[in-house]
Amino acid sequence: MYYTSGKFFERWIDMNDLLSAERKTEIAQQARKLLIEHNEATLPIDPFSLAGKLGLEVRYGEMLGNSIGELKGSTIIIDERLKNDSPLSRCVLMHEIAHHQLQHGNANKNNAHTKAEIEANFFAIEALMPEPFVRKALEIYNSQKRETVFDSLEEYIMYMFNVTERKARQRLMGFNYAA
Ligand SMILES: [Zn+2]
């Protein structure tokens, strides 16, 4: 599941602590391996192409409640209202691919569910913004070449990786970047 609202992702930093350093490394490696194996390690990462290679059917449909993405077997449904929002569609799709790759079973409302959501979010960040590319992006940004074009590092990351502002921010938090 990928939710539009609620406090869930607002509490990202605290939640992020629920994953051990070991588990984070494991997930990051799994995400990177997936991109390399499927020859999808060029920017911007294309989750639609990746889903196809994994045999996952992606379609837009009407969603209920706060959820804007769902994995059902080998089908991923994205809220039809996101059709015109590429960064959000991409993030939602990668999040659902993550549930598939991490073999999270049917989500239910308990601790395992919460953990699964955090893991999927973490995986999606690693897959859409792989560490080597982020390091390179930071280098370029810090060399001030882009200073006149982008207002902030967040904006630059959003542009480079075609992701939402929230995901860009979460990625930068992971890098302990102090603005
Ligand atoms: Zn989810």
What is this structure's SSE topology?
Blueprint: E1 2-3, H1 12-16, H2 21-37, H3 47-53, E2 57-61, E3 67-72, E4 75-79, H4 86-101, H5 111-128, H6 131-142, H7 153-161, H8 165-174
Parallel strand pairs: 2-4
Antiparallel strand pairs: 1-3, 3-4
The chain binds zinc ion.
Zinc ion binds at residues 1-2, 95, 99, 117, 120.
Query: How would you characterize the largest beta sheet?
Result: 4 strands, mixed
Rg (C-alpha, Å): 16 Å
CATH topology: Arc Repressor Mutant, subunit A
Count the strands? 4
> What portion of residues belong to β-strands?
5-15%
Question: What do you see in this structure?
Answer:
The chain is an alpha+beta fold and 179 residues long. The protein has one domain (2-128): Arc Repressor Mutant, subunit A, CATH 1.10.10.2910. Helix content is 53%, strand content 10%. α2 (21-37) packs across α5 (111-128), α4 packs across α5 (111-128) and α6 packs across α7 (153-161). The two termini are 31 Å apart. The model has no long low-confidence stretch (mean pLDDT 87). The chain binds zinc ion (ZN). Zinc ion (ZN) is lined by residues 1-2, 95, 99, 117, 120.
What's this entry about, in short?
This protein has eight helices and four strands. A hairpin with a 2-residue loop joins β3 and β4.
What structural keywords apply?
179 residues, alpha+beta, four-stranded mixed beta sheet, binds zinc ion
